[in-house]
Structure formats: structure tokens, C-alpha cells
């Protein structure tokens, strides 16, 4: 299964922020949760780069399809280097 995240494979994009408690957010498809709450932007913005990670190459138990919002997948406690090695898709989200 592929999961998707906006951005490039730079380490800063593949490292959870302190407020994310070790979780890195992905989507289970090239989609956005709609309708958007007022003041929120799309997760995958038109014209912006995205990447797709092959979950079968990640350590067991680190992929959590929590579906909040719908389609959300958390990846927990995976080193940046491992995530970079599992990237199989790169592109720009359609406009």
C-alpha cells in the first residue's frame, strides 16, 4: 500500500514536529478530506510536490490508519533515513 504526504523527501519534511508526539501524517490516497473546516487548507495543495511511501517496507506496527480525518494515516517512530528509502512515488499534485 502507498501512503502520501505533501512535500519533498528532505529530512525536515519527514521528521515529526514536537507537537505531533512522534506521529508523521500521511493520506491513504491522493485526496483531501472534504469538506474542509473553515480556515483550513487542503492537505495536498494543487501544484505542490508530494511523495508516496510503500508501507510494506516500513517496520511492523508503525503504520496506523486512524482515519481522523477520513483517509488519515499516522506513521510513528520511523527514522528519516528509513522513510527516504521507502519512497516510491514523487510528483506534483494536480491543479
Which helices and strands, and how do they pair?
Layout: E1 2-6, E2 23-27, E3 49-54, E4 63-64, E5 72-76, H1 80-85, E6 87-92
Antiparallel strand pairs: 1-3, 2-5, 3-6, 4-5
Show unreliable segments. none
Helix content: under 10%
Task: Describe the main β-sheet briefly.
Answer: 3 strands, antiparallel
Number of strand elements: 6
Number of domains: 1
Structural class: mainly beta
Order of helices and strands: EEEEEHE
Strand order of the largest sheet: 1-3-6
How much of the polypeptide forms β-strand, as a percent range?
25-35%
> Which value, in Å, is the CA radius of gyration?
13 Å
Query: What distance separates the N and C termini?
Result: 24 Å
Rough shape?
globular
Average residue-wise pLDDT = 94
Quaternary state of the chains: single chain
Count of helices? 1
Write structural notes for this entry.
By secondary structure, the chain is mainly β. Helix content is 6%, strand content 31%. It has one helix at residues 80-85; strands at residues 2-6, 23-27, 49-54, 63-64, 72-76, 87-92. The chain starts with a strand and ends with a strand.
Give a brief outline of the structure.
This protein has 95 residues and is mainly β. The protein has 1 helix and 6 strands. The chain has one domain.
Essential attributes:
95 residues, mainly beta, 3-stranded antiparallel β-sheet, 6 strands
Amino acid at each position: 500500500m502507498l501512503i502520501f504526504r505533501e512535500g519533498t523527501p528532505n529530512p525536515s519534511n519527514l521528521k515529526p514536529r514536537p507537537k505531533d508526539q512522534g506521529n508523521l501524517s500521511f493520506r491513504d490516497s491522493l485526496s483531501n478530506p472534504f469538506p474542509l473546516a473553515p480556515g483550513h487548507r487542503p492537505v495536498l495543495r494543487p501544484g505542490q510536490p508530494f511523495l508516496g511511501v510503500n508501507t510494506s517496507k516500513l517496520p511492523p506496527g508503525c503504520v496506523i490508519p486512524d482515519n481522523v480525518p477520513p483517509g488519515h494515516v499516522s506513521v510513528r517512530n520511523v527514522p528519516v533515513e528509513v522513510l527516504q528509502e521507502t519512497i516510491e512515488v514523487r510528483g506534483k499534485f494536480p491543479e
